[in-house]
């Protein structure tokens, strides 16, 4: 077993980890980042689905009891495998009550107070608003269908360099062309330039206190081919620990640490949200697409373009209305989901249940180029609860890469089911109008409900009974431990959450810097954006001082 020391130890290198790593390293702290997955670069991102390709190496798919979670497993975390959609959360999200009967978010966080931190992220990554010239075939079709049914459609803000994008639609496995502005292109290289150390294939197991008031973090080194194999183990001592392993792993680490750290807050491993997510597959009638929507492309084709383009480019936000009652607000977003999980879980519209397999399924698979996938993000009841942690890691590893069995239990409430049903019904109304398509939601029979945006398993809040973290992201009753990933977000956002996770991480940094100073670390806050820009820094100067307690 090896042993080492650092000043700030960060677990995970996604949005929550990379942003903290950059600011603390730039401020002068000795920063070490432990990442469970491999370190992949643009040259490593494959355009195939073979075992051992970037798809199986960079993903973590954990099947729970009623809910399965798909997340990133590599340096850069979810930013490497996400579709780069970066909308800001609607204003009403911050006023949600959810299942607890009171405002879930801390009183000090509203859309207005978070906007300057959103601005800073947008400058650092950067995020741009697409126009209609950037929209893909599938996005254009979704926009036309929305317009035909009396809805509006909006190009989505994205972290994509459209000048570099080749519309190859392989971005979910990592971008070969560096067109997707993942954390590999901004915060992480900037952190490295300021002296941060990143250790890939290091899976954190537990945390314990040291005699001097700091923490000792224990890890296993993972084999780079078979993730079930541990090649060695070790520990690192640190004065500050920042957990950013994702909402499916951070609570498991804390649960396993309870024996050594002492009792965890009630909210650790509870109130998990799948961001209320649903997926629907529309099987398009090409003739109707041409006749009803007037769409066509080269060679006389109406569409047949499922595989061309990129991730989401168009969304319908008509239902993101603060005047609507809770659990009836949602977004509807066109999405390309590559063959594999999507083709398995897609059901035959109008068939005899179950229709995710069988003869009818084979027939619709022949028409996969005429598919359109619609991604729904609704409001749920935070009903997920993590059971006892596995012996190591966040799941029992089933295969050498990607697949695991986890302890998350999810039993959707009537509120959540109602929200899903409303969203399903509206997208069906849009896509089946005048015979454009036949549509059906993905089945829950195989892996339960599913999410690519896990949230809220260690959430911030004002109430100690329902939130694991103080509003400054520090773990209750465990000073010096912070959580900055999606598990800190209080609940479903009704939009893609990456921008909000990143903004909250930016907001948390001044308080972490202050805590680090109090623990004897010579570190300052105030670094510019990774590219040197300072307008975002100026925008948060006063807020940063208040969050640091000055």
From TrEMBL:
Using the record's annotation, list all stretches that form the FAD dependent oxidoreductase domain. Answer: 8-40
Q: Which Gene3D superfamilies match?
A: FAD/NAD(P)-binding domain
What does the UniProt keyword field contain?
Cholesterol metabolism, FAD, Flavoprotein, Isomerase, Lipid metabolism, Oxidoreductase, Steroid metabolism, Sterol metabolism
Which InterPro entries does the record match to this protein?
Cholesterol_Oxidase (IPR052542), FAD-dep_OxRdtase (IPR006076), FAD/NAD-bd_sf (IPR036188), GMC_OxRdtase_N (IPR000172), GMC_OxRtase_C (IPR007867)
Keyword Glycosyltransferase applies: no
Give the Enzyme Commission number: 1.1.3.6, 5.3.3.1
Q: Does the keyword Isomerase apply?
A: yes
Biological process terms in GO annotation = cholesterol metabolic process
Domain of life, source organism:
Bacteria
Pathway the protein acts in: Steroid metabolism; cholesterol degradation
Report domain Glucose-methanol-choline oxidoreductase N-terminal positions: 67-271
Question: Which GO molecular function entries does the Swiss-Prot or TrEMBL record give?
Answer: cholesterol oxidase activity; flavin adenine dinucleotide binding; steroid Delta-isomerase activity
The coenzyme or cofactor needed here is: FAD
Query: Pfam families annotated for this entry?
Result: DAO, GMC_oxred_C, GMC_oxred_N
Outline the extent of the Glucose-methanol-choline oxidoreductase C-terminal domain: 450-505
PANTHER family, per database record = CHOLESTEROL OXIDASE, FAD-DEPENDENT OXIDOREDUCTASE 2 FAD BINDING DOMAIN-CONTAINING PROTEIN
Similarity annotation: Belongs to the GMC oxidoreductase family.
Q: What is this protein called?
A: Cholesterol oxidase
Q: Which organism is it from?
A: Amycolatopsis albispora
